[in-house]
Amino acid sequence: GGAVGAFLTGLFADGYITTGTTQGDAYNLFNGAFYGRPILLGYQMAAIVISIGISVTQTTLILLLLKYTIGLRVSEESEDEGLDRSVHGAESYKQPGLNGSIHGMDVFNMSKATQNGNGVGPAEVQVIAEGKAVV
After folding, report:
1. Using one digit for the tens of pLDDT, what is the confidence trace for 64-118?
2. Mean pLDDT of the chain, nearest integer
3. Dihedral sign (CA 36, 38, 39, 41)
4. Do 31 and 15 form a contact (C-beta atoms < 8 A)?
5. What is the DSSP string of the chain?
6. Residue of 56 and 31 predicted with greater confidence
7. What is the Cα–Cα distance from 93 to 14, expressed in whole angstroms?
């Protein structure tokens, strides 16, 4: 909404709203393109372009700083293993054959609501590819 609002302000600005009068220079200074002062639309478009330029420049500087200090990506090994396991040390949504590894058992964890003495709570369930479940 920021760029759109700024552009539309350049079109629809009405000096009466900001000055409370329909007379004099103050009124004319705040009019938009549809009220006889198209230069305001040019000012607004210049402000939009400058804002985009500042945002792109600052974002680029931050990303370059991160790239050459701590890096922007994890290692290829971490990607192959899966970020849930390599970064967080946990299993999440691991589906048989979709984790990039064909070694070991195909197991994934899912949360199952179980009824216990204190009400309903989560319990981790390992579901093995053959359809056997171990609680």
Report:
1. 999 999 998 888 888 888 888 887 877 766 555 555 444 444 444 333 344 444 4
2. 75
3. positive
4. yes
5. -HHHHHHHHHHH--HHHHHS-SSHHHHHHT--GGGT-THHHHHHHHHHHHHHHHHHHHHHHHHHHHHHHT-SS--HHHHHH-HHHHTTS---S--TT-SS--SS--EEEEEEEEEETTEEEEEEEEEETTS-EE-
6. 56
7. 56
